[in-house]
Amino acid sequence: MVSSLGSRGQAEPDRSAPSTQDPQDARRGGRAFRRLVGTDVDEALSFFGGDYDFRAPRVRRTRQRPQWDFAGVGDDRMSLRSSRFYVDLRTESVVDDQFIVAWLRSGSSTITFGGRSVQLEPGVPVVLPDAYELHHRDIGLNLVQLDRAHVRAVVGDPEFTFDPMRRPTAEGIRVWQAAVRAHTSTWLDVEHELGPAAERTITDAFVTAAVEAFPRRDRWQSAVRGSGPEHDRLRRALEFVHAHARDPIGTPEIAAAAGLSARGLQQSLRRHLDQTPGDLLRGVRLDGARADLLRGDRDATSVADIARSWGFGHLGRFSATYRERFGELPSESLRAR
């Protein structure tokens, strides 16, 4: 066995392994494992930089004899990894085709992206961004890397993505830790060959746990591109509208939630999304009504009731606006279920 993760994800490489700067690679069925131990910083940067696309890394020694090690087992869909790197490291990193769940065992790590910085909390898993700057200091870190295309296939949404660096709820942490406890020892036991069906079952268990545990990013959250105070205020406006679209809100309430004047909100929406506050609110309400109609029971659901619940007081105007947006009447969406 290469390493083991406890219920809180505590992992340590097998100390019986010889210290070496050459990877020990092997394959059992579809899984491959690697184990490396060393003291050469340049060699560590070459290895980690290749795996995690480090760009312009800057290293400062924190001890006379730096140490680093890595242990991991993975296939094309998932990889479980544990590493230590006893230096002060700053670099940029880019993730193209994976979702990476990370949690800190020791040391400190700060991730900066989108104009904000988040410090990793020991034992608390988060999903890393696609592109970020990191500052590691004497870290021990666990990672689960999930193939992005496979996650999206399991979810059934080709655009699915997580909201990066959002702390999961207590229940989300429990769900993730339960998957770690249930499946990690089997996955890491490379002396025990797993068939394709067993590997797929374990991978999908981690995917399911990730989808349940970590906040996802809705498509509207990606609509505002860029970073800065104006972008942050506009995102707050969108968050408020999506959270309160059923309530009797309008431009004053949206502007107040975003920390903008009514005119400032109008200008910001027009500049970045080419919308008015009324356009935004109406669109969110129409999307919500459509979701309710598509999953509603046509024998127990009324188009009028759904329209009223989303703030549409005039059924005729609601039906016309709905048809213009979705190409069918609300009653046709209800019958399509």
UniProtKB/TrEMBL annotation:
<feature type="domain" description="HTH araC/xylS-type">
    <location>
        <begin position="235"/>
        <end position="336"/>
    </location>
</feature>
<dbReference type="InterPro" id="IPR009057">
    <property type="entry name" value="Homeodomain-like_sf"/>
</dbReference>
<feature type="region of interest" description="Disordered">
    <location>
        <begin position="1"/>
        <end position="30"/>
    </location>
</feature>
<dbReference type="InterPro" id="IPR050204">
    <property type="entry name" value="AraC_XylS_family_regulators"/>
</dbReference>
<keyword id="KW-0238">DNA-binding</keyword>
<keyword id="KW-0804">Transcription</keyword>
<protein>
    <submittedName>
        <fullName>Helix-turn-helix transcriptional regulator</fullName>
    </submittedName>
</protein>
<dbReference type="InterPro" id="IPR018062">
    <property type="entry name" value="HTH_AraC-typ_CS"/>
</dbReference>
<keyword id="KW-0805">Transcription regulation</keyword>
<dbReference type="InterPro" id="IPR018060">
    <property type="entry name" value="HTH_AraC"/>
</dbReference>
<dbReference type="Pfam" id="PF12833">
    <property type="entry name" value="HTH_18"/>
</dbReference>
